[in-house]
Amino acid sequence: MCKSKGKETVFPLEKRMDYIKDLRYVDLVIPEHSMAQKVEDIKNYKADVFLLGDDYAETFKKMPEYDAIKDICEVMFLPRTPDISTTALKQKLQKDVEKDND
After folding, report:
1. I want to staple 7 with a disulfide (CB 3.0 to 4.6 A). Which of 2, 11, 48, 78 is the partner?
2. Coil vs helix vs strand at 55
3. Known active-site residue 7
């Protein structure tokens, strides 16, 4: 879904899913391919909790997907992790690549 939004990821999908799967309270990680998929996945897998970053909270609450799932499972918005920036990580990786190519 990141690619469809014109965004690049630092780690491939499989690696990101592995990181999430390793968390103690995670039972299942479902790759997302479209916004409409959310509702069907929540129903099909009988999800208890749906998580999103809090930077997406106001936008998501205005979407039809929110109305469709808010009574089916708990919707939670997690705060961003302080001092962790994807942009900074990408810049550091790029500098490391450039340094290796010198």
Report:
1. 2
2. helix
3. yes
